[in-house]
Write a structure and sequence with these properties.
Elements: H1 11-30, H2 33-41, E1 56-60, E2 66-68, H3 75-80, E3 84-89, H4 95-112, E4 118-123, H5 134-146, H6 150-158, E5 162-167, H7 174-188, E6 197-202, H8 203-207, E7 217-221, H9 226-235, H10 239-245, H11 249-255, H12 258-267, H13 273-278, H14 282-298, H15 311-314, H16 316-332, E8 338-339, H17 351-381, H18 385-404, H19 407-422, H20 430-439, E9 443-446, E10 449-452, H21 455-462
Parallel strand pairs: 3-6, 3-7, 4-5, 5-6
Antiparallel strand pairs: 1-2, 1-7, 8-10, 9-10
Helix pairs in contact: 1-4, 2-12, 5-6, 12-14, 16-20, 16-21, 17-18, 17-19
Length: 464
């Protein structure tokens, strides 16, 4: 594989970024439904077998395609084609999981060898400006997601020191997907094209585009076979589920997607098989499965006495409502990731709500300043130099803290949270709410950022 000279690379920042990506991969794998199946049903402690359970069809250049069984990794393919790879698959087929598995190996390589580029996990859904180059978009995302200074990010790209792992080509707005491929091709043909790059997309969405990515090879994630489904469910101690779906073609079709198979296994107690089978379309069966999974994950823990219920147990309905509202806002902005700081006034429902919020911020900020002015005025009225001095010192300290510690941002966030809580959109304890949803495998948390466990679940919540 090609290598580069890393003498210019600031070692400390490189190491910090690699640790961040390593933790991102680890957290994704720890918070996946498949991991939950292994932990709670198969009862592996720790669950070691995180290998994919599906087959892969690989194509390199103009050569005939060939199949990789589930016990073969994709790293040999990645190395063989020079590290420029397209990952295709159906909805819920395991594209992101495959990308994370690849990222795990590439991060390990980069930590062991400074000559290896830095893997970056980025989602193309955040590419929203059809005129923006992929280079400038990567620089922007490095700043937003990884807090890498702009000049350093540009330097890394110019010296081919990054390895973009780009998920979600199919999550780009449909009218812009073909344009995104063209921009990627421009990047690939430029003199700053990275030595290695991986792009993930839904196979149907990719084939609907006129443009074709100029990469060296592609892999297609195949649906699970009936035998693989049976083996998975037997290992997960879900024989009853297998017995109920083995002769039902529509449910088997749903189970051929690894995501849905894991959700079926976890949510089986909330599924009424007779009702599920009566549904006419695959979409209806999928929505039923999501509802069953949500009921399973938001259900109270039966073993906990009522008198000892904590915030989590007492506010499960608020958690569900909060996730519905959150999903609607994310879908409106075509986002799949967010942080608490990104919950902004633009997420309010209408102009009237934004106006009330703005008045609230001005009132609280003004109240503090007027309080300091009133204190100084009292000192002048009662001719007390000590009160005047005290008021001036308080004013100076407040002005310093207001600017230095960005207290205005804290005031704005607090008022916004209070407003959203008052309207019933989000619980006041926002962080506790998000961590509860993460603990119950509805969200995933990486660093300070959150996302739904799958974009399909986000879309489902947004329609509830």
């Amino acid at each position: 594989m090609l290598r580069f000279n890393s003498n210019r690379l600031p070692y400390q920042k490189r190491y910090q970024l690699l640790q961040h990506v390593k933790n991102e991969v680890k957290q994704y794998r720890l918070q996946s439904p498949h991991r939950a199946v292994l932990t709670h049903l198969v009862r592996e402690t720790p669950p070691l077998r995180m290998r994919r359970i599906w087959d892969i069809e690989a194509k390199v250049g103009n050569r005939p395609s060939f199949r990789l069984s589930s016990d073969c990794g994709i790293i040999p393919i990645f190395d063989r084609i020079g590290g420029k790879l397209l990952i295709l698959g159906g909805t819920g087929a395991g594209k992101t999981t495959t990308l994370m598995g690849l990222a795990k190996v590439l991060v390990r390589r980069a930590l062991n060898d400074e000559g290896e580029p830095i893997p970056l996990l980025l989602n193309l859904a955040t590419w929203t400006d059809s005129e923006q180059s992929i280079e400038s978009w990567i620089v922007e995302q490095l700043k937003i997601k990884y807090d890498v200074p702009t000049e350093l990010a540009k330097d890394w790209i110019e010296h081919l020191q990054v390895l973009p792992l780009l998920d979600g080509l199919d999550e780009v707005l449909k009218p812009q997907q073909n344009g995104c491929i063209l921009k990627l091709n421009e990047f690939l043909s430029s003199n700053i094209c990275p030595l290695h790059i991986v792009v993930c997309s839904n196979v149907e969405a990719y084939h609907n585009c006129e443009a074709v990515l100029r990469l060296n090879g592609a892999i297609l994630l195949r649906p699970l076979t009936k035998k693989q489904i049976r083996t998975y469910l037997m290992n997960a101690r879900s024989r009853e589920l297998w017995n109920n779906i083995e002769n039902d073609e529509s449910l088997l079709k749903l189970a051929k997607k690894p995501l849905f198979l894991s959700l079926m296994t976890l949510a089986y107690e909330e599924i009424l098989i007779s009702s599920w089978k009566r549904l006419q379309t695959l979409e209806e069966q999928r929505q039923y499965l999501f509802n069953a999974y949500i009921r399973t994950q938001i259900a109270p823990h039966r073993e906990q006495p009522t008198s000892r219920k904590n915030w989590e147990e007492k506010n499960l309905e608020k958690v569900r409502h909060g996730l519905e509202w959150l999903a609607k806002r994310l879908e409106e902005e075509n986002k799949s990731e967010f942080s608490i700081q990104e919950i902004s006034p633009s997420w309010l429902q209408d102009y009237e709500q934004e106006k009330k919020y703005s008045i609230g911020v001005k009132f609280v900020s003004g109240l503090i300043w007027w309080g300091i002015v009133a204190l100084i005025a009292l000192g002048v009225i009662f001719e007390s130099i000590w009160v005047v001095l005290f008021g001036l010192i308080v004013g100076l300290i407040w002005a310093f803290l207001y600017k230095r510690l960005a207290i205005n941002n804290w005031i704005e966030q607090s008022i916004l949270r209070g407003f959203l809580s008052y309207k019933g959109y989000l619980p006041w304890q926002t962080k506790q709410f998000l961590n509860t949803a993460t603990k119950r495998l509805l969200l995933q948390k990486v660093g300070r950022r959150y996302r739904f466990i799958h974009r399909l679940l986000q879309q489902h919540f947004s329609q509830m």
